[in-house]
Amino acid sequence: MDSCIGLPRLNEAAPAFDAITTQGRKTLSDYKGKWLILFSHPADFTPVCTTEFIGFQNRKADFDAMNCELLGLSIDSVHSHNAWTLNIKEKFGVDIEFPIIADLDMKVAKAYGMIHEAAADTSAVRATFFIDPEGTLRAMVYYPMSNGRQIDEFVRLLKGMQTSDANACATPENWREGEKVIVPPPATIDEAKARLESNEYECTDFYFCKKSL
Questions:
Q1: Active-site residue, from 49, 68, 169, 209
Q2: Is residue 49 among the annotated active site residues?
Q3: In whole angstroms, what is the distance from residue 153 CA to residue 155 CA?
Q4: Residue pair 157/59 in contact by the 8 Å Cβ criterion
Q5: In this structure, are residues 35 and 68 in contact, taking their beta carbons and an 8 Å threshold?
Q6: From CA 152, how far away is CA 157, in angstroms rounded?
Q7: Could you give the CA distance from residue 167 to residue 25 in angstroms, rounded to a whole number?
Q8: By three-state DSSP, how is residue 92 classified?
Q9: Whole-angstrom Cα distance, residue 94 to residue 111?
Q10: Residue 5: which of 85, 146, 109 has the closest Cα?
Q11: What are phi and psi of 58, to 5 degrees?
């Protein structure tokens, strides 16, 4: 029972990989300086996965604008990936423009904890990993085999993380670009008093303050 060797951990270096894809060999270092969304799917030529790939492709321009690349993966051959990509173009009219890792030996899937024996013995679950430009794993999202991902949420999450990085802030539930952000709690009582008296913040209490960017 060693097919899943453990999950990578947030805010640590993402596991390195060197893999064959539908667009040639790709390594994690190829993406240095960019964000990367690495996502696995159970199998080619399956209906839920097809909708997800179309969903990722439909938002690709938004990911591009945020300096983010997309990279798919399943335990299938590159020939299967190529045939499925062509099928999606033929049947749904959508060109899949991002590469897909062919992971027949499951090296990448095992390194990222994508194989969950209770879900399937030889299929990768619906796992999504956000890797920042320094190669650090910043977020992980898992979905069950039966339900497709919500790609709009991944766009929102990436925008939120980039906003937090750039402005030393946090974002509230369902935050959207342009809305107020949450500022870190004050470290001292003097800072707390000053914040409550400031016109810069919208404070419900000293520990809960928002501001516009």
A1: 49
A2: yes
A3: 5
A4: no
A5: yes
A6: 9
A7: 36
A8: helix
A9: 31
A10: 109
A11: -65, -25
Which CATH fold would you assign to the domain 168-211?
Antioxidant, Horf6; Chain A, domain 2 (3.30.1020)
At 63-108, the pLDDT tens digits run 999 999 999 999 999 999 999 999 999 999 999 999 999 999 999 9
Can you tell me the distance from the alpha carbon of 193 to that of 35, in angstroms, rounded to the nearest whole number? 39
Query: In which residue are the tokens 């509230």 written?
Result: 172
How long, in residues, is the chain?
Answer: 213
Q: Domain residue spans in the chain?
A: 18-149, 168-211
| pTM of the predicted protein model | 0.91
168: left (phi over 0), alpha (psi -120 to 50) or beta: left
Domain 18-149 sits in which CATH superfamily? Glutaredoxin (3.40.30.10)
Q: Are 146 and 48 in contact (CB under 8 A)?
A: yes
Q: Residue 93's CB: how many other CB atoms inside 10 A?
A: 8
Say if residue 119's pLDDT is above 60. Answer: no
Beta strands in the chain (DSSP E): 18-21, 24-27, 35-40, 68-74, 100-102, 126-131, 137-143, 181-182, 202-205, 208-211
The pair of three-digit structure tokens given for residue 74, joined into one six-digit string = 């399943």
